[in-house]
Amino acid sequence: MISIAHIVNPVIVRPESDLYDAQLVTFASMEKARSYAHGLVHVELYSAQYAEDRSLVPEFIIKTRDLEHSVLDCSNFLKKKKLPLITDILSRLLEVSNADFFMYTNVDIALLPFCYTLIARIIGDFKEKNEAFVINRRVTSDKWHLCGDLDLMFAQIGASHSGYDCFIFRRDILTKCDFGNACIGANWIGRVIIANLIANTSHCQIYKDLHATFHIGDAGAWMTGEFNEFDEHNRSELTALLRRLLQRSDVLNSPERLMALSEISDYLKEWYSPKIETNSIENMPRKESLSKRIAGEIIKMLQKVN
């Protein structure tokens, strides 16, 4: 039986926050999905939380050791928003779980009842390819946003979304990852995680149209400029990460990894010229020369940021 350890980061917020109801929906959906998977998938539910947020965590979710650091320890920000570092959250899983696969989702991402069994099926059917994969959310109407409305939420097909917010990867991969000081709760964090998964696996699949997770509404609160200094922090962390990855021979010698790294970053697409199409790999006489070409173009792009 495949085992999955799933971790989220609960946080106490004011009632007017979008997270106020969304977190409760997420918790209820996790419990339903684990119940649905009983006897088919071994599912462990965990939280990584600050001490002041422990009371929010429901009893069926195991609390890991309280978080001690935040992005505020990494730089001087004008806004004092206590955002956790993704490396601290995920390291809690290594401390408490020996599950085959680890799973991280944003705390406002709810699960369909069959989510864990679907993940296990993907792992089982494509084990050699799916060391790590990402499932993009779907967006449902915000007309229903309470736990009592779960069935109505499940019944919606919703709309596809390009956001990266559900990550599944083999346990041993986490020990190879380098997240720097990237924080959750700000833009670019999904790309930081995906860049690590691409660099440390033979293949990282991104599922863009699976009906497995959802987000209530698409108000786009993350697009406001109130906390954009944290977005800039994460963008800098992503840029530094890509520079470090380009120093690794296993990345530099892999056209597939280099192509994937360039594709997961919006700003790389914006700066990239000429664009190298995936099928151009077949037209190159040697993989090595293509690797050098792509790496060279990525390095040029990184020189244009920060």
Describe what you observe in this structure.
With 306 residues, the protein is of the alpha/beta class. It folds into two domains: 221 residues, Spore Coat Polysaccharide Biosynthesis Protein SpsA, Chain A (Alpha-Beta Complex), CATH 3.90.550; 58 residues, no CATH class. The protein is built from eleven helices and eleven strands. The strands form two sheets. Strands 3-2-1-4-9-6-10 form a seven-stranded mixed sheet, with helices on both faces. Strand 1, helix 1 and strand 2 form a beta-alpha-beta unit. The longest helix is centred in the N-terminal third of the chain and has 20 residues.
Please sum up the structure shown.
With 306 residues, the chain is an alpha/beta fold.
N-to-C terminal Cα separation, in Å?
47 Å
Report the top-level CATH class of the largest domain. Alpha Beta
CATH-scheme architecture of the largest domain = Alpha-Beta Complex
- Listing every helix as H and every strand as E from the N terminus to the C terminus, the arrangement reads EHEEHEEHEEHEEHHEEHHHHH
The number of domains: 2
Helix content: 25-40%
Task: Provide the gyration radius in Å.
Answer: 19 Å
Mean pLDDT: 87
Instruction: Give the count of helical stretches.
Output: 11
The number of distinct β-strands equals: 11
Low-confidence parts, pLDDT < 50 over ≥5 residues? 271-288
Task: Give the biggest beta sheet.
Answer: 7 strands, mixed
- CATH fold topology of the largest domain: Spore Coat Polysaccharide Biosynthesis Protein SpsA, Chain A
The geometry reads as globular
Side-by-side strand order of the widest sheet: 3-2-1-4-9-6-10
